[in-house]
Amino acid sequence: MIAANNTRSTNNDPVESSESSPITGAANGSSRLMRQFGSLFQPAAQRNDPAGYVEFGSISEADVHSGRTLGTFAGVFCPVALSMFSALVFIRVGFIVGNAGLYVTLLQFVIAYVILLFTVSSVCAISTNGAVEGGGVYFMISRTLGPEFGGSIGTLFFLANIVGCGLAISGCAEGLIQNFGPTDGGDVGSIPDGRWWRFLYCSSINTVMLLVVLIGAEMFAKTSMMILGVVVVCLLSTYVSFLSMGPMEVAIPVENSLVQNATNKALGNYTGLNMTTLASNLYSHYGQDYTSSGNAVNFAVVFGVLFSGVTGIMAGANMSGELKNPSRSIPSGTLSAVLFTFLCYIALSVLMAATTSTFLLQNNFLFLGPVNLWPTFVTIGILTATFSTGLSNLIGSSRVLEALAKDKVFGSLLNFVVKGTLKNNPIAAVIASWALVEAILLIGSLNTIAQINSVLFMLSYLATNLACLGIEITGAPNFRPTYKYFTWHTAFIGMVGTGVMMFVINPIYASCSVTLCLLLVFALHFFSPASQGAQWGSISQALMFHQVRKYLLMLDSRKDHVKFWRPQMLLLVSSPRSCCPLIHFVNDMKKGGLYVIGHVKVGEFSENDSSNDPTIEEYTQWLSLIDHMKVKAFVELTLSKSVREGIQHLIRISGIGAMKPNTIILGFYDEEQSKDFFEHENSPYKTSEFDDNGIKLFPFRRSGEQKSLLPTDYVQIIDDVLRMKKNICLCRHFHRLDKQMIARSNHIRYIDVWPVNIFEPKNDDPFDVVSQFMMQLACIINMLPVWKRLELRVFLCESDPQPEPSAPFERPAEHRLSLLLKSLRISASIHQIPEWGKDMDVPRHRNILKQFTSQSDSNQVMTEENINRSKLYMQRVNQIIRDKSNATAVTFMYLPAPPKLSTIDYKEKCHHYLDLLTELTYDLPPTILVHGINSVMSTTL
User: Fold this and answer.
1) Does the predicted TM-score (pTM) go above 0.90?
2) pLDDT at 339
3) What CA–CA distance (Å, rounded) separates 134 from 52?
4) Ranges for the SLC12A transporter C-terminal domain (predicted)?
5) Which of 122, 488, 573, 765 could join 468 via S-S bond, C-beta 3.0 to 4.6 A?
6) Where in the sequence is the domain holding 418, given as residue range(s)?
């Protein structure tokens, strides 16, 4: 509980002071400050500070922008536009219009782009709220939601990019086979076809992408700009063809077995601009998908196909590490690319519906080639769009993998990625991504994996919206994005929209992806380095703060009711080294209530003292103690001129609102030898964590050292607690408590309650407030698994002689106690102490003993004879209790109120008060002396 500047503490005297930590010299202090803060004046790349906080120092623009060469158009607009075009623009729009009809197609594009627009708003809000480093979406989510969610979503986003790259490569290979391979089922073609031939083509395309990415991001940017130019030219040729080409018939592919066989050459009509054709394509005509064995097409299938083609909004964010100005480039580049692709898709859908019959749209997904003025342009468009999408996914996956490795999310597993970086280009990450894409290509058919890919992208979008929604709800003052069109409404709609669409696309894959994400969250929570959460900040802490503050304001102490009372403990500890079992025991006794471990450091906070408040440095040590002890407790430290004054501070300031301690727990004031549980060989609390270069943290009073707290001070502390209207418990012999032995031993069988005020015994003691509070605490302990097998015993000590009852009637006091326990729903056995009323001469000693309590008469003077008689009486009572405690785990006893300050010979009475308590509890099991001041039990429903 308490630490003084020049004294030490003891286990069983938690209110006693202990030594403070040695004060280091100026040189040591300076070096420590340099170690702590020197890294802040280094460039971000050198100090590995991905959080991107603004620091004041001599950081030049060259340091900040080292390795960043891309602008908005090359770094964001081109990758996003190409990724959102992919294969959809030339292959799948006809399938969508032919089945869903123009009205539903336009509706689906609006729905998809509204969801994308809200998600882009969240991306823009995060990217304009601070420095964005490499890793794109992973970086944003991890620095917002914390390492567990960030690492799990980042891993899934990495896998999504890998699968997306494999899908794009396969689409590119399909385009090659369609145009240069065997036609009409024959064997003639410029290039051969077959499973392993296709794998060879895919591997070749993948290797070409690898070479482009290895050259660097600048080469990728130049490549993407060139490819986007080619795709736009090819798309313009398609628009021109729709406006200029007249009616014609287009052959249905041989592989379409739904309408075609070997002897029947089916044809579809291309009418050119025609109002009748437009009218026939306005409404839905869901049919069958000839590329998937005739599976039925519906709204969900069509929307899944549409959305899988426009999941490239993060392509620009993935390049955040190479952008000159991510905060400006990501919003403007992404939004402009989204608008551009949306207009292109709308125009393409309308032109298709106005020129092409429903039959042709449903049965030939590559009809754009035959109806184009220059058919080769469509082939080039398909190949370049798919190649650029695969390229974007490959470089995006490598950057996410690099960010995961730098953050050590998976420990040392990805160290090879960090070591394999050359001139800011993650060579090892690129090669690892390339190898995984090769493994995906070995699977062959990727139709099923394509849906998983879409779901994984959707899950990353959902997490991005969730991150922004959480920050906005918490009202964090440091969340001030310069992007002005973001609100919590946009984040909420984006989150709900992406969540719903995940399950619309495929509920099974969506459920599996969410489950995998949660498993990764739990795995990273338990196995990843815990320091990352403190380094980045976690939104969970902000959300908890927001909710806790709200409910604390709603928790009104004026509405407290005894039915819902629970103990809220303040344990005063001098040195935790010597009272580990007590700390654990109080944790068991709190019953889900507030538990605060308090410590007083004796000293003065002088204005002339240039050193910091010593409690600030020690606070982290106490938090580490909480982690080591595995208890659910808070820590409160204070600096005070005296122990007594410090305890008064702690009682007043501990807790907040209606959550304030109502029970104060102190160690007993005695001379027993302390035990260091951190060093004892057989101690379950053994650790070297609190040994700092030979200096033991939390020192305690050794044998022979003088106590810093006088007996009078200790008794005054007890009196202070009661006058502050708090319950109090004094704990003795808890260094003997062994919960492991209690759990496995058949010898330890009881929890004992002695509800009698030894200093002023009466027959109605079992029914007063103190006794009920004592039984309440014993009942709480008896509810826990380790203690549940123990029997609760209540000892009835009748002070005045009672006539023997005629069977089968009970004694009046026993009967009343039995009814009380029954009404309080306490399962306990009642044990009479016959010798108490017969042999103890209680009435005679009652008048003597109350001299040492609050009932003492201020004009009554103690005599040596009365003092000796009282000690002998306590020894006899102690012997009775010891005889009953051979199999007892813990004993609860009645604590009488200490003598009043106004009595004469107060100091002497305090000494004798403590001496009598010492005699009473001598050589007992772990014992708690209890004094309650308020009713804590209810007999009503």
Assistant:
1) no
2) 94
3) 11
4) 581-671
5) 122
6) 94-181+194-531
